[in-house]
Amino acid sequence: MTSLTLVNRQGQLEPYGLVGTPQPASPVEPFNRIAYSAAHVVADARAPGDPWLQAAIDWDTTLAYRHHLWSLGLGVAEAMDTAQRGMGLDWAASRELISRTLQAARTVPGARVASGCGTDHLDLAQVTHLDQVIRAYDEQIEAIESMGGKLIIMASRALVKVARSPADYEKVYDHILSQVREPVILHWLGDMFDPQLAGYWGHANLDLATDTALGVMQSHASKVDGIKISLLDKDREIALRRRLPKGVRMYTGDDFNYAELIAGDGQGTEEVHRHSDALLGIFDAIAPAASAALGALARGDSARFHAILAPTVPLSRHIFQAPTRFYKTGVVFMAWLNGHQPHFVMVGGQHSTRSLPHLCELFRLADQANLLGQPDLAVARMRTLLALHGVDA
Fold first, then answer.
1. Is residue 8 in some structural domain?
2. Of 56, 298, 332, 387, which has the maximum CB count within 10 A?
């Protein structure tokens, strides 16, 4: 048994022996759920410049990871918060990322891509009225649609700043949904992921906010493919799922309870409301397990589905623990441990947002979830990180 010395939650050294059996990353049969992985970007660690100020991307490695996700049957939700959108990755880099990903997807039969559309090119200090928000959304919608991309309408910090009532949200979304070419995915991102989005839909009360969002979807149901909510509240997600207009899907963004939400509860007047589909940041980190589990579910083997995903839930809850907005560090750390990128460096220097004990616990949980695909490589890289922190492993 391979072992090494890790740092526990109290900052003390203790031995750890690996116990996991790597989950094979193998081709899959068609799923009976739509499943997007919000994919991370790989920083160019050799680029000159100041990492806190300039987003240097390793395009080849970034796109190679998207091919990895497609090979497992997962779609790519591009240029979302997992890719550090608005948290190191600006609109110019996001637009190039979307363009490159859409081009790459055309070489892969059946590859699914949906791309984030927002208002993040605005200078918040200069935003004073709704028309600026509407024009900003229009600019990004036009750019993505001109590339042939499917839209994910991301929540807007600028809209939060200038909106004075739920009617202001309704005005902006009415405009968007009245002129998009194809049905879109709406994205309601909770303030645990981005504190600047507190009070979205014009209400601090989530019940009232839900009513506003639902009213927007009911008014434009033919232009809404689905809604992704990232509130980490399974009961709220289920309640909204049962109220969605006909044909509108729920894409779970609940990185704490995804297994049971995807499996569904069988309740609802139509099939798409009896379960949640998926648009998840954690699928980036657990892609082989997600693929195998979704394949089992499609075969009708729900026991196998839950058996595969159950050990990934403690890992996900650890990665997404508060401050939840730092979850991207754990996602990139997993990609480095598993050999999908040559370094543990992030855009904006965000690899520093989690502590060494946090990363050691992540390593343990990844092993116990059977998600260290190359154990010897993962151990070697973990030892390198520990040595960098003065620990002889």
1. no
2. 332
